[in-house]
């Protein structure tokens, strides 16, 4: 039996946050001393901190919220591919990769080196890749980066094109040292009814 590999960022006050967004905090809000029985914690964080999924409502006021998302997207077979040293990722970068039977595609770029600092630039997904991926049956794209678009993008063309082609987004993975190949993935969002995304605990297990 293979073991599950944690591909999630740790959540503590060292985790990098989108510039200007809510810092991560955890505190014991009601201590054992006060309550007489238990420590009761409270977290305060942006949904877009650490390893998380984006719901379409993040970039589309009429888009689906987390509770509306199909859980099958976030559990099942996944392919990890390694594309280091790219400025962007499009059809050309994937030309040599066989995507047959790939529903969940995780791209290891290695571009976010120090995860305690928010990156200055990242390789972005070319919006044209969305149609290509959907033709091959991909329904989920995951990256070791905080966004699929350039960090200064306001149009978020890749987010929109992916959503328009039924492809969902998983961001902020930790894929350091993960060999390309076939895995089982679990990265379930919380049952947040109104939210634009959710933190996830993402794990991989090598497929036989
Ligand atoms: N769209 C980006 C996130 C994003 O744009 C963002 C996330 C948190 C706080 C601010 C953000 N964007 C613009 O100010 C993404 O989820 O890939």
TrEMBL record:
Binding residue positions for Zn(2+) 2: 54, 159, 171
Keywords in alphabetical order: Hydrolase, Metal-binding, Tryptophan catabolism, Zinc
Binding, Zn(2+) 1: 48, 52, 54, 171
Active-site feature positions: 58 (proton donor/acceptor)
Enzyme class per UniProt: hydrolase
Pathway assignment: Amino-acid degradation; L-tryptophan degradation via kynurenine pathway; L-kynurenine from L-tryptophan: step 2/2
Co-factor note (free text): Binds 2 zinc ions per subunit.
Record InterPro entries: KFase/CYL, KFase_sf, Kynurenine_formamidase_bac
EC number: 3.5.1.9
Entry binding sites for substrate: 18
SUPFAM superfamilies: Putative cyclase (SSF102198)
Single annotated GO MF: formamidase activity
Similarity-based family: Belongs to the Cyclase 1 superfamily. KynB family.
Name used for this protein in its record: Kynurenine formamidase
Annotated source species: Peribacillus castrilensis
Biological classification of the source: Bacteria, Bacillati, Bacillota, Bacilli, Bacillales
